[in-house]
Amino acid sequence: MFTKPFFPIVAMVLVAGATVPSSYADPSPEQYLAFQIFTASHDSAALTRNFPPLTGTIAEQVDSIVRATGTVGSKNRKLGFIVGPLAFGDTDDRVRHLMRDAFAIALEKNVATGFHIDDSMFWDRLADLNKPENIEWIDWNKTPNTGRRLDWSSVPTKIMPQLCFNSPAVQDAVKKRAVLIGEEVVRGMKMLHDHDRANLFIGVIAGWETQIGRDFETGKHLGYHALMNKGYSATNPPADIDQARVAIVKEFVDLWATSLAQAGVPDEKIYSQIAFLSQAQFDAARFGQPGRLPGTYLETINFTPPSAAFGPHHRPGFSTYPQFGLLEQIQAELSRNGNPPWASAEGTAGDPGDVEKGGPGISMENYLGNLFNRGAVVVNIFGWGMGPASNPFRKIAENQNAIAAYQKFLRGEVLASDPPAQVPSPQFFDKMRKLQKELPPYLAKYGPEKVGRFYEALGRDLKAQRYVDAEQAVDEIFQAIKP
Fold first, then answer.
1. Quick one: which of 115, 204, 133, 142 has its CA closest to 171?
2. Rounded mean pLDDT of 159-171?
3. What global pTM score does this model have?
4. In terms of DSSP H, where are the helices of 14-88?
5. Which of 7, 209, 426, 480 gives 275 a disulfide partner, CB atoms 3.0 to 4.6 angstroms apart?
6. Contact of 87 with 122, CB cutoff 8 Å
7. b/e map 37-54, b = 16+ CB within 10 Å
8. If you write DSSP's letter for every residue of 174-185 in order, what string do you get?
């Protein structure tokens, strides 16, 4: 859910008639400002422990959002709400009830709705999955993981074990749940279409920060069971074990999306959700605090680079809490994939680590502008109505400046946004290490006269995270001290 910026940071056959006529799919370029409404099931103790309780009913939450904004949107900008998590821990009847209620509320209040799936975390209701053949391993020796670690706050929590993504039983569970969700989407879309309200369906987020999590007790990285299912072993390992695990995550994202699409959900209404620490943040942390992030980049982000968010039957989605270099990395990956519409599947205008300590966050207008102005068609805000009024995430989502930003967007006005960040080049920190080695002896011998002003500029640029300017200063220093 609220991922720390340095996180160690589902019937096996299609239902007859479950396709959506093309006339039901809404081709217009709506942008949706949505708010996550948490609906964790009391059928699952794990869901109850790890998600905030629903405050009032879904309809009451939606009413509070509409009252605060004073509008449900303009021609191509719609106010919305997203229900979830829809998890394996929820009974089929509960999922049907939640989805039918959401579509009915959307139609009654002229507010768009969507659904958020927990793809693999909370599965305690499915006791048949709790078998060795479905659980991930911490090594090639088939040692099962002790439970998955969640870094959703400063104190890690333990949930049920990480599932093996390509276990046949796990994949059958995905397909079965996707059929159920697809049936309800088809039913709801037809109802909206029949009332000339097709644009009130936002879509389905087919994951909740999908990843191969880490073992709780040892902190070890997982995925060995899925790797062995693909033919690898200790004596026949993949050429790049990290990239092999990225491929497994991406295949699981694609399995959910393809299963939902086959069950009747239009491709353009399916979104993934990937969370990652930006490469820029990772590189800066490794340089500034050696030893803080000892693993590889892909290990650190639990094998979920932005490329894992893309597939043939869905649009990409990401967690987008404010983080240096995140949007630039997302934009680069979007560009490599033809710049499709995308979703901010989770986020708010504040870094979770700072917000947890009471930090006020950043400008909500700039936060929204940074996303919508860069091609996002869905932004899903976390925090509204979540817990007591003193909850810092709730304060960020519900304060008057944030509400003013929501109103400005929904009126169709242009939102302010920040300029692109100056992210470090791949060579920058190698240059910095070389500078740390070569500059001190130069200064000891010749003094600072030729390099002082460049070194001062370097310090200012590093503090402001202006890495392009900083690299220029480094190059100028090397030019000055060249024999």
1. 133
2. 97
3. 0.91
4. 45-50, 58-69
5. 209
6. yes
7. bbbbbeebebbeebbbeb
8. HHHHHHHHHHHH
For 291, the token pair is 């030893």
CB atoms within 10 A of CB 75: 9
Q: Is 447 exposed, middle or buried (0-12, 13-18, 19+ CB in 10 A)?
A: exposed
Q: What is the pLDDT of residue 287?
A: 92
Phi, psi at 81, each rounded to 5°: -140, 150
Q: Is the pLDDT of residue 9 over 70?
A: no
**Cis before 85? omega within 30:** yes
The residues pairing with 84 across neighbouring beta strands, listed in sequence order, are: 38
How far apart are the C-alpha atoms of 302 and 95, rounded to whole Å? 29
- Nearest CA to 80 among 116, 37, 113? 113
**Residue 105: closest CA among 73, 57, 68:** 57
Each residue's pLDDT tens digit, 216-254: 999 999 999 999 999 999 999 999 999 999 999 999 999
Q: How many other CB atoms are there within 10 angstroms of residue 196's CB atom? A: 8
Where in 412-478 does DSSP place strands (E)?
none
Q: Which residues pair with 148 in a beta bridge?
A: 159, 215
Cα R_g (the chain), whole angstroms: 24
Beta bridge mates, 113: 81, 201
The residues near 277 (Cβ < 8 Å, ≥ 6 apart) are 5, 6, 7, 9, 300, 301, 323
Residue pair 18/65 in contact by the 8 Å Cβ criterion: no
- Separation CA 38–CA 81 (nearest Å): 10
Look at phi and psi of residue 253 and say left if phi exceeds 0, alpha if psi is from -120 to 50, else beta: alpha
3 state DSSP class of 242: helix
To 10 degrees, what angle do helices 58-69 and 400-410 make?
80
User: In the predicted model, what is the mean pLDDT of residues 334-355?
Assistant: 94
CA dist 274 to 63, 182, 348, Å?
30, 22, 15
Angle, alpha carbons 288-293-294 (nearest 5°): 115
Task: Report CA 409 to chain centroid distance, whole Å.
Answer: 22
